[in-house]
Amino acid sequence: MARVQLLVTCLGDLVFPDAVADAERLLRSAGFDVEVPAGQVCCGQPAFNAGHRKAAGRVARTVDRSFDRDAPVVVPSGSCASMVSDRLPELLGCEPFDVHELSVFLDANEVPLTETNAGKTIAFHDACHALRELGIADEPRRLLERTGARLMPLPRPDLCCGFGGTFSVRQPEVSAAMAAEKLAGAAGADALVTGDPGCLLQLNARAKKTGGPRVVHLATALARGV
Fold this sequence. Notes:
Elements: E1 3-6, H1 10-14, H2 17-29, E2 33-35, H3 45-49, H4 53-66, E3 73-75, H5 78-92, E4 99-101, H6 102-108, E5 121-125, H7 128-133, H8 138-146, E6 150-151, H9 167-170, H10 172-185, E7 191-194, H11 197-210, E8 214-217, H12 218-223
Parallel strand pairs: 1-2, 1-3, 3-4, 5-6, 5-7, 7-8
Helix pairs in contact: 4-5, 6-8, 10-11
């Protein structure tokens, strides 16, 4: 049985543990032996994006200590996958890991999926790091279609949700307007699905204030439906 390591991300661990459990369930259903290293804390991205490289390095060191390079690291977050694959080796001066964003890994390994979304209309939001840094766009959509979902295109699928880490704190009015626009574009869908916990946090919070479709992590949509 092939072994994989699951990087749960700090938001996944603290805010969206169900999405992490669904990601693990999907990997196990595909026959992988899933290891969740206990020593992981955070990939260091929040501090890194804010320009605090030393602080980012201290936090990211937990990833370097907790994961090994003998098995793939699967990440249910495009932003954290990008950080670990593209930033962490240079930041820490360490050897790179074999990093895979969740949807890319599931799609490449043709994991078995059931029609959990038969008859459902789903809009998919492309997280910025996944789309722009990792080039991920088709994989999550293929997976959702395999669950029976009908995909509804967003007016601006490339538009940021407004989270942007500290951007949502530094520019709250602009951030809220961007989230509202994204939600409005998904009006009429049964759910707005995203593969990144940061986007999920942002859009969920805005939807609770202004209304809009249910916002669901991709792992949950694939494992249990929207």
